[in-house]
Amino acid sequence: MINRLNLFLKVIELGSFSAVSRAAGLSPSSISRQMDKLEADFGIRLLNRSTHVIHPTEAGLALAPYAENSLAQLDQARQEICPPSEKVTGALKVSVFSTFGNLAICPLLPKFFDQFPDVSLTLNAEDCMVDLTKENVDLAVRIGRPQDSSLKMRPLMANHMRLVASPAYIARHGLPENPEKLRHHNCLTFDRNRKTTWWHFDQDSRQIKVPVSGNLRSVGGAPLYRAALAGLGITVTTRWQSHRAISRGDLLPLLPDWSASLDGQGANQIYAVYLPDRHMRPALRAFLDFLVAELAPLNC
Length: 300
Prior knowledge:
Layout: H1 2-14, H2 17-24, H3 28-42, E1 47-49, E2 54-56, H4 58-81, E3 90-96, H5 98-105, H6 109-115, E4 119-125, E5 139-143, E6 152-158, E7 161-165, H7 167-173, E8 187-190, E9 197-203, E10 206-212, E11 217-218, H8 221-229, E12 234-238, H9 239-248, E13 252-254, E14 259-261, E15 269-274, H10 282-295
Parallel strand pairs: 3-4, 3-5, 8-11, 8-12
Antiparallel strand pairs: 1-2, 5-15, 6-15, 7-12, 7-13, 9-10, 9-14
Helix pairs in contact: 1-2, 1-3, 1-4, 2-3
Domain HTH lysR-type: 1-57
Keywords: DNA-binding, Transcription, Transcription regulation
Protein name: Transcriptional regulator
């Protein structure tokens, strides 16, 4: 009955047996049989089936909140009366934008697998929005609050920016003493199809913007970051992207008393988003808790 109620709620959420099949790893015919048995248990039709879409009947709509509450109570009871499992197992599929995946997530994976050796991970590092249901993705990392209100989310960290350059560049050109001095430096900037590029700075209640220019522009931040490492110029990058290079001495933080941004709006949040399953799998919970704990030092 418990598994059938879980599937029933998933069918209502996704609207088709095929969508539930992709999410749950079961065949559509198996899901259909389980729903037939659930309807037999209650002695009433719970779902209206059509070729493409499945809708709950009036009885199905009435059952759904009772099913949710019952499953939540059973899950709570299980946590209270059962000893915690020593092993967390399972496979996860995670989608993350490429730079964050390469620089922030991948360096943490050896530690994660040391703690959870029985979890396997498929990591898709790509710069595109994925449909978690269609792509069968367990967790995605996104910058800014997701517009899809059906997704659950958990903030990972603030996407703070900072001004950086290599020691070699500073040795040749000197430190900028204030934001205005950036006019005289080679600034590596994002290509936003604008005639003038502005960098924004905030210090206490004082806000200024400075026009900057240089010999390299890029749609993405990775080329600018690599060029700054190579000593080409000054750029604005995220703190999570630059903190290891700064710790090694490969980059220097500039104008530390000023908060830098590209648009004057301050820092966005970086979120982990996932489907609103009532019972989060232990492997997903473990990975999410791990990310929150390990990324906390960068959330400053």
